[in-house]
Amino acid sequence: MSGDAVVGLAAVTVLGVLQQAYFSLQVIYARRKFSVSPPATSGPPQFDRVFRAQANCSEYFPIFLCVLWTSGVFFSQGVSSVCGLLYLYGRLRYFRGYCQSSQQRLAPLYFSARVLWVLVGSSVLGVFLSFCRVYLELDLLHVFG
Using one digit for the tens of pLDDT, what is the confidence trace for 108-134? Predict the structure, then answer.
C-alpha cells in the first residue's frame, strides 16, 4: 500500500498527535499557574479539570488510532478520515469545555463517543467483509450488491 493510499489517515493521525501535544502543554501551563509541581496530580479544581481533561483524552487516543486505521484500511479511507476529523473536533470541544466546568464536557463527550462508535462499527464491518472475501471466498458486497 503506497503512502498516497493512506494520506488522509496519516494527516488525521498527525493532527491527533499535535492535539495531544497541545493538551499536554495546557497541563504544564496549569501546573505553573496553580503551583502544582510534579508528581502531584491534584490541586485547585481548575487545575484538576485541566489535568483530567488531558488524561481522559490521552486514554482514548490509542483506541481512536486503532479504529481510525482499521476502518480506513478495511472500510473507507474517506469516511474514516472525515470521522477522524469530527472526533478530533469533539475532543477539542471536550477539552475546552471540561477546563471551564465539568458540566460543559458532557455534550462534546457524547458527540465524540458517537463518532468513535461509527469508527468501531465501520472497522468491524470492513474486517468482516474482508475476512469473508479472503478466507471464505465470499464477496458479500457482490452477493448482496
Answer: 999 999 999 999 999 999 999 999 999
Catalytic residue among 52, 91, 96, 105: 105
Please name the residues in contact with 110: beta carbons below 8 A apart, sequence gap of 6 or more. none
Out of 31, 32, 91, 114, the active site residue is 32
Rounded to an integer, what distance in angstroms lies between the CA atom of residue 80 and that of residue 9?
7
What secondary structure does DSSP assign to 93-114, as a single string?
Answer: HHHHHHHH-GGGGHHHHHHHHH
Q: In 10 A of CB 131, how many CB atoms?
A: 12
Q: Is the pTM of this model over 0.90?
A: yes
31 catalytic per annotation: no
52 part of the active site: no
